[in-house]
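#struct-help
A.M.: can someone run this one for me? Single chain, 438 residues.
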Amino acid sequence: MRSVFLGIFFLWVSISPAVCAEGTDSPPLILTLETAVERAVAQSISLQINAIDLQTAKKEASTLWAQFFPSLTVGAGVSYAASPLAERAGQASSRDPFTYTLNFRASISLNERILTTLERIKLLYQSRLFSYEQARQQIEIQVSRTFYQLLAQRENISIREEVLRLAELQLEKNRISFENGFISNLVYLQSQLSAETEKLNLNRARTEYNSSLREFLMLLGYDQNTGIRLEGTIEVSPFAADPEELIREYLPKRPDIISQRQKIEQLENTRTQTFLSSRGPSINLSASYDGNYFREFTDNLSGSVTVAIPLDGWIPGTVKDQALRSARAEVEKAKLELKNIEDTARTGIRSISAQLRDSWTGIEIARLRVEIAERTYELTEEGFRNGTVELLTLEDTRNRMAEARQQLLTDELTYQTMILDLAAALNIDWREFLRSRG
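D.P.: on it. Structure tokens below:
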């Protein structure tokens, strides 16, 4: 009866984690990294909002001529004028008391606001475009990070399943040996405890995986009961790049640097507007045409040009002078902040590049450690069968083998994550980044 139970259990643990954790009665939905990213981008409400803002700014930027379009008005009127006293005295006038008028007016004000408004519109479009691209990239990085984390957790389940399989096989062998009197009851109980411990480890790994999977489904906009199967593996290769070359080529593309430069442009635009409003002249052009097209034809065309030059802005200590000085100080402050951001960015790029080199060395050591641990377990198992190795030593060797495999998996996941971080810091698609440096 126990053999039947163990056979059923072996069949259960041999099922792929993609089916155990993800499967439903219907065929599972296959998700690759590319399809997951596309789904997340399509379902992102924040990205849709950014897209609307971008389209609005693009439309405004494509119609800059509207800032020079004059103000146009057209109007019509009727008026009544008569002399009641003269009419009572019999001196009625033949003039029609009703007067009908039609007028058309056009005016435009040429001042500092037009040029600064044009610059503001251009900067707004660039800012919205940058915000959209940055939001999309953040979604791609987040999905990629979670996707590879799930692959690592799934691989960890496979490692725990393999360890449990070995523990169960050893338990079955020890059961037979115990029944035949070759080993003591203590040894048999120790092997039972080892198998139960591995069951617990496997259950914890599956619980962690299923929890992460549900969060991933929410990120993609799927129902949490949706059955999916992730298709992909963590494959890392040595990545060597000169950090100084990366800094020269990609530093200007960093999101925080782009944002700070846009801030400087906006502040300079504000400074220019402050200068023109406090010290620069403004010109106002206006024209109007009035006509009476009824009874007696009369019309009138008029125009005016007005130039205004402020004087108080040139006097030190006035409100306008202080505003101009404050605008200049804000620009200088923003430039210093940009320098600080660039220095910090250079340090970060150099640090991640060095970590990548060191991490690859750790991966090579971890791979060698796995080979040694697997060979050690084979020899230890053979010694246990021959009676020269104790059960605790065998279990310790098996645990070390599982630990070595898990450490290699962790190192590879960390390496992949650092590549994502470096690509995000350089503001470039990480797959294109790897292909360009391959």
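A.M.: thanks! The radius of gyration is 39 Å.
D.P.: also worth noting: Confidence is low (pLDDT under 50) at residues 1-24.
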